[in-house]
Amino acid sequence: MTARDVAEQLYAAFEKSDGQALAGLLDPSFTAHVSAGMPLNVGGSVADPRTMLSKVWGAVFVAYDVAPVPAEFVEVARDRVIVFGDYRGTCRSTSKSFEAAFAHDLTFHDGKITSLVQITDTKRWHDACR
Length: 130
Known about the structure:
The chain is an alpha+beta fold and 130 residues long.
């Protein structure tokens, strides 16, 4: 399985809101950096998969019905893929829809994701809940 295959599985799991599949894709050494300014104070460094699943993705999915929709996968190394796309969804409290561009820098080891760096337009996230 290639890094791109694993990346595609990640976005398929997001689309299905499949937390178990998401958890299965993350290496125990997984770390992340989430864009500063994200709603719910989820931006910043994430030290492990459990924190990402519960305190970042879990918190976001409680407040938003959203999924990242990839548009382009750029394989920059055997173990690294940059993904460009848009988050598409709605804020649950306002029912306002939004789209926010993203870039995800993903690294892999032995078929698992070891790191994710997220860059997104955080203003659009906030605007949807105003």
